[in-house]
Amino acid sequence: FIRGKRTKSQASSSTLRAVTQMSVLSANRKQPKVLKLSKEDIVRHITVDSAWKLYQQKKKELLRKNLKDRYDSILDAANDLKSLYPKLYESSITNVNKTKSKSPNRFPIELRVPTDFPPNQIWNYEY
């Protein structure tokens, strides 16, 4: 017996009714069986489960802290730019139209030199 797409052209209504009843009766076989665990195994399961939840919680907290640090760094950089070059800061804050219009204050991304690999020195600090 292979279950497939049900169409009236393939079988009669009585056959379709029988197939429907069989699929309803076999629905409990699709559910996972309840594990019969001893008390020691239940304690082990609860311990492992709580340790896993604690690990996931710490992982999420570390990610949240990392994102907050990144955001704070962006704000610090924006404040430095505002104090050093107010005109450049204002041009970086203004919204660019959603259309293809080019803003004279922004560097076009199309002018980036295409490369196969990243450079050996990512950032030149003495520039």
UniProtKB/TrEMBL annotation:
What's an example Gene Ontology biological process for this entry?
mitochondrial translation
Name any GO cellular component annotation. Answer: mitochondrial large ribosomal subunit
Q: Which UniProt keywords apply?
A: Mitochondrion, Ribonucleoprotein, Ribosomal protein, Transit peptide
**MF (Gene Ontology):** structural constituent of ribosome
Q: Output the Pfam families linked to this UniProt entry.
A: MRP-L28
The record's section on InterPro entries has: Ribosomal_mL40, Ribosomal_mL40_fung
- Where in the cell? Mitochondrion
What family is it from?
Answer: Belongs to the mitochondrion-specific ribosomal protein mL40 family.
Could you tell me what this protein is called? Large ribosomal subunit protein mL40
Q: Which organism is it from?
A: Ascoidea rubescens DSM 1968
Provide the organism lineage as a comma list. Eukaryota, Fungi, Dikarya, Ascomycota, Saccharomycotina
